[in-house]
Amino acid sequence: MDTLGGYGSSSDDSEGEQAPQQKVEDPSREHEKQLHLKGSGKFSGKSKVLDYSVMSAPTVTLNEAMDQRRHIDPTAKEVKYNYKYEELYAPEVGPHNPFKTQQQNATKNHLAGYVENAHVNEFQFETQRRTFHSFKYAYDPSTIDESEGDKLIGSSVSAEEAEFKTVFEDNKKRPLDKRKREKNTDASDIEGYLGPWAKYKDEETVSRPTDDDAAYLEEYLAKKQKKGKREEEVPMEESTTLHIKDDTDYQGRSFLHIPQDLGVNLKSDEPPQKCFIPKRQIHAWKGHNKGVSVIRWFPKSAHLMLSGALDNKVKLWEVYNQRRCIRTYMGHKQAIRDVNFNNAGDQFLSASYDRFIKLWDTETGQSVSRFTNKKMAFCCKFNPDDDKQNLIVAGTSSNKIVCWDIRTGDIVQEYDRHLAAVNTITFVDKNRRFVSTSDDKSLRVWEWNIPVDMKYIADPSMHSMPAVTPSPNGKWIACQSLDNKICVFQVGDRFKEMRKKVFKGHMVAGYACGLDFSPEMSYLCSGDGDGKIFIWDWKTSKLLCKWKAHDDVCIQVLWHPHEASKVASAGWDSTIKLWD
Questions:
Q1: Residue 213 gets which letter from DSSP?
Q2: pLDDT band per the 50, 70, 90 thresholds, residue 15
Q3: Among 323, 453, 525, 540, which one is least packed by beta carbons within 10 Å?
Q4: Cα 362–367–373 angle (5° rounding)?
Q5: pTM of the entire structure?
Q6: 3-state DSSP call for residue 543?
């Protein structure tokens, strides 16, 4: 302190060159100096640093003086010392979210609220549980306050009868509480020894229902047996009606003969040079009583058209000349699902919801044979190869593709890999393979006569495709997808989806609306759930034209293979229309 006291004087003062000025002390600051230098007797009073104290902090009352509690984090899982009750249950302090509701602000450790473990004596809990199970009453475990007394849950009448006793207390004996067993403990009696396994004296070994229960059970089983018993379905007798008088021409040729006096070469293998979008309706065929479900051109020439409808009938129509209904084929009990010609056109198949596929003679209307595997067929086709015209394939509701030989009527092959009903069968790659689509939202490619799929195309974004058509050049197939678009797949050496070639704009969700290419592949046309016909440009995928064609669903659209602008459409309004 002596050193600090002399810190304020300069070397000049000691030499006496200048007279030191007398320092004036402020008597009011003496008290502050005393506070700072309390206990320091050696302070000389010459320092400029320690003469005055600077008190920058205001005089405040500390928090500990106001709140003696020690604060604890509400999210803490562990504490290091014993907190008092008022510290554990103190209100939370700090900012809160003003936008939360009272329910959101509530303390929760469960979706429904705050759950706390309740520590209950295991014996007491088991006592009450067994009492409730036996006597239908127990004491209320949620009673908290002693002033509330014991509350009962359950039947108060049962409690009074049992005198409010639990199962561990003496109760009135019930009839079957203590039943006496038959006794035979003589081990030497080999036949009659019972031991601890003896029956009760009044035990019923065979339980029989009462008279009322027996009558009810008999009635129930009779109904169930009647419901489960499927009568053997007898196919309907086939019949046919010829609607024209002149079924042969002057040379004795039938209506199957391809006409040559129309100005159009119907025998040509070449498609029209350029196709055009049809402008107007030129004819409407009416004859079905219910909606038309499918139409097919006569093979190669398309001078006749075959239609199947929901009125269980198949009809054959003229496309040229008078455009009459030539013949009606009747032989199904339920609606027609699909029809298809063979290569020559002299026979065709019809598949119906009555679980039968029937083979018809086109000219005479006679039924040649019938096929069934007791499942519904959703599509049926002849093998397009000329040397395999005796083989037909059908996609059924049993997830199988079944192949029959029409000469023997036997099933010769089954393709069983799909996980849902098979909707379509399309032959590709020079008829060596075929593509099938199903309700399992997949597309499978099969080698003919090999019952294992060689290619499986499925994607989470794919939907069921209930209508498929091949392109005229055989390189593509167009599939009507139920998410309101047409998907295109490349077929041949490689099978893959062309993701960039998608046709949209129509509404087909829930309907198996047919689609078709124009013969020279410049257009793609499709029906629509609203009864419209849509035509897209094949190369650009742009929608070119649409118009209202039917009052109900337009279920099928077919482009004529030899006419540049003729399109046939079928609808659920029971009409077939021709557009040009």
A1: H
A2: very low
A3: 540
A4: 120
A5: 0.63
A6: strand
